[in-house]
Every structure is written in C-alpha cells, then in structure tokens.
Amino acid sequence: MKRRKFIQQTSVASAILGFGGFTVANAINSSKKFDKHITILHTNDVHSHLESFPSDHSKFANRGGAAKRKFYFDQIKKENQNTLILDAGDSFQGTPFFNYYGGELEFKTMSKLGYHASTIGNHEFDNGIDNIAAQLAHAEFDLINANYLLKNTSLNGLVKPNQIFEVDGVKIGVFGLGIELEGLVSKDLYKETIYLNPIDIVQDQIRFLKVEEECDLVICLSHLGYQYKSDKIDDLKLAAQTSGIDLIIGGHTHTFLNQPTEVKNQEGKNVLVNQVGWAGVNVGRIDFFLNEQKEDEPIKSSVVSL
Amino acid sequence: MNGFLKVASIFCLSFVLIGCIESTSNKKYELASSLSENREINEALQEDQEIVNFLAPYAKKIDQEMNQELSYTKKPMFKTDSKFNTAIGNLMADAVFKQIKPLAKEKFNIQLDAVLLNYGGIRSGISEGKITVKTAFDIMPFENKVVIVELSYKKMNELFEYLAKNEVAHPFAGIKLEINQLSDIKHQKVFSKELKEGETYFIATSDYLLKGGDQMNFFIDNENVFETNYKLRNLFIDYFKSKDEIVAEKDNRFVKVQR
Asked: Is B21 touching A (CB cutoff 8 A)?
C-alpha cells in the first residue's frame, strides 16, 4: 500500500534571517548533530478566525489572523524546508466567515497557508456532514480520521484514516481521532457516522503505520480534548494507555499549553501532548531530530506485539 | 522565549552515524531529540499580503451585509439589567413566540403554548440606535434551530420548578410565574390553557436545550418533538425586519413576591 506523499524540499537555507533568533539558532545547531531535522507546525480550534482580533479586544488584541500565521509559517519553512503543517480540527464556526461561506474560506485559506493535514472536529459538522464533503473540494490538504466509520455517509472515500508523509527521507505517519458525537452534535448533522473507541483504533493504526509501513515518526491529530476529570477519553489518557505515538496534537478543550506535556506510554517511552488554545492566537512548533538506524542494530522503535 | 524552550531527549543515543549516504530509500530513522516552542501570533509578525488580498473582498461583503439596518431601539438592553426577567430576554422570547406560533399551526397543526430559552444563550446586549444583522449575530452567534417540544403535565411542572429554584432570568413567553421568599411557587400559569393532569403543552425552545443543555432535563423525556428547521438567528433577523422600532420592557411574567 503505497500512498505516501513526498514533501518537496530544496536544500536547507544557509542564511537564517528574521525573528526568533535564539530558538532558531538552537534548532539549527541541534540539526547539525543529527542526520535529520523535521519541523512540525500546528494549530487547533481556529474557529473561522481568519482575521486578527481587533486592537480593542479585551483578551487577544491584534492576536491571530491567517495573514500573520502565513508569514510565520513561511519564516519557519525558510529555516527548515522539511516542515509539516498540521491542524487538530474545528477550523469551522466562530465568525461570520463561516456563517456566510460555510467553510469554503477556512479550507481555501488553510490550503494557501500550506497545511498538509487536518482532522474532523465536532464543529465541522455544524452545517451537516454533506457540507464537509462539499467544502473538501476547496481543501488542498488531507482531512483524516480513523475512528469515525463513514461508510454510509457522503464522506466515504473522501476522509482517510491516515496519511504517510515522506519528508527528507523520514517516514511520518499521521492519523486522526475525533470526539464522541452523540450528545454533542445533532444526529441530523452527523447522520450515519459511527464513533469507534479511540484506544482500539490507535492499536490498529500503530500496527499499520509502525509495523507494516515502518514509519519513523507517528503523529496523532486528536479532537478528543486535553484532559477530563471523568473517565471520558482524553489526550493524556490516550498517550498513557497506548504505545507507538510520538506526538499528539490536540484540540477541542481550547487548552493553552506553554509547552508540550510529556506522558509515559505503555512501553515507558515519552509521548509529547501539545495544544495551543484556540482562534489561531498561538502556533505550536516541535522540532524532531533523528538519526539513521544501522542495519545490524536491533530495531528500537515501538513495535506493538501482535 | 527562553521559558518556552525545551530540549527533550526522547531516546538515549547509543551510536552516532558519521558520513551517512544521502537519499537512499528504505533507511530507518530513530528519534533522538526534540525541541518545542508554542509561539504567539501577534503584531510582531508582518501580514502576508496574498492572504490579506484574498480575504479583503469577502470581509467587505460581510461587513456590508452585517451593517444592513433592520430596526431601531431607543433603549439599550443587557441581560444583567434586572432580576427574574429582562427587557432583552423578553424581547427574544416574545420574538420566538410571534414567529413560531403561525408556523406551528401551519406546519404541524399544533397550538404553541409557550417559549423557553436560556439566560446563557443571550450572548450579547443590544445598544441603543440601529439594530442590524450584526445585532442578530451578536445575540445569537450559534447555528441552533427552534424545536417545538410537547411536554406532559408532569414535565411542565418540572419546568416551573426548575425556573423557581434557579431564580435566573431565563427568557420565556406564554407563561407566568410567581415565587415567594423561600423560592416556592406561589402562582404558575400557562396563558393558552389550564394546567391539569392529562393535558400536554407545546413549548418552543432551541435544539441545544432540547438535549438537556443548562440542565433543562425536563425537555429530554418529552412526548414529541417537532423540528422547525428555523435558525434562531434568522428568526431574530425576520422579527427585527417586521418592526420599525423595537420596544421591550421588563414586566411581571416572573416575579418574587413578599408574602
């Protein structure tokens, strides 16, 4: 099954200009010590905030906005062409851009910003599942979800469980998880979508991405939410109760994290769980540094015992 | 920025590769380290001109539509203006009653008895002066639709009990409620018909509250639901359009009495 995407890249820019010099310098210095340097940029719950908040906004004056976000993305891509741009859902609903254009502008803007993949948040259903299918015509990125059974819906064949990206020779498996819709979204909006248990689905996805496809990195785009006191599944529980995921990019709970939370998985390995609030006021950046595995070295990556 | 910076060693490196050959396929890579930074998108960043130009005509068109004048009010209204019932809440509940009553008759052949919305659902106040499409978006930014719920006599009593015990100015119309100082019901009334065993009542509300939003659980265990497919926001727009001036007042539909 070969449906991986190759991210085009030129040689890594030699001259690094612009803001954020300290972090950049660190990243670049680090990249020299390793064989591969992959940068992940991510958002969640942008909620149709295509423009910046107004200058008189009580909380987020001048924050966010797709134009500033693109400027930042482009800066990072100049530093490291080997960059994946991901989103964890709920790009729809929150400003009249959605009410008037039904998601077309959100998907077109994300395409212009160079997003590679996003997942389905509960608000994507606000104008019905058929509207998601219609708006996908405007998306030049993958909408992925592994735990909604979509066979009897208009999204059948349009939404894949996962996508493998090959970036500078590094295979990155990305899969998506969505929240339980019953009680949160009207049935007439999600129609015949069937929600499947995320924990079971993770094991299936890891078996495919890590064992069959031998991905070097596995990223989960989750719209489950960061943390609940109840036993409702969340990103922290998901990280702890599974193995094989390197990074969970979360959403739904609009949680502002200063830095990713590290969680020990079933094999005792660290999983990074990150989420950057909402409305595009923050962007998350993770730089991964990888080294080649020698042929005769035992495979040390997470392999799920079958 | 330094505070956001974090170097996490994910795996211990047991070996270092020197002079590896580039770009042959089927090589395996192992995570060695990671760095992270959650960064603000703020005024320190320039705006990408392509995106600005792409969005500008849409933003302009939306602005024009949003500024379309529908009606007028001499008086500003906010949900915090008064206790038990408010001018803005009464305006919203009365608007739903006026718009839904003929629709209920025509579409479902039922007699609408009352309207109940929720206080938390009043998302903004209304300033004095022009009432525009934007006003409707401000007070109702969500896509919720009106549903008509048929409630039993028992559930209707639970509805009154809920209102009495919470003492929140939830917008309602078609009913009246008086409570005493102990928040016990002193007098409850449905204007259209008598409250009695065996009777059922048709209440217009939002599909959000139908699912038990704001703990309005009496809506869940209903006799029947009639879906109007009428968005609350569009209802308010239609209502504003039908009036040259909006006059809304606090009244005595929900009061606490001394005795």
From this structure: no
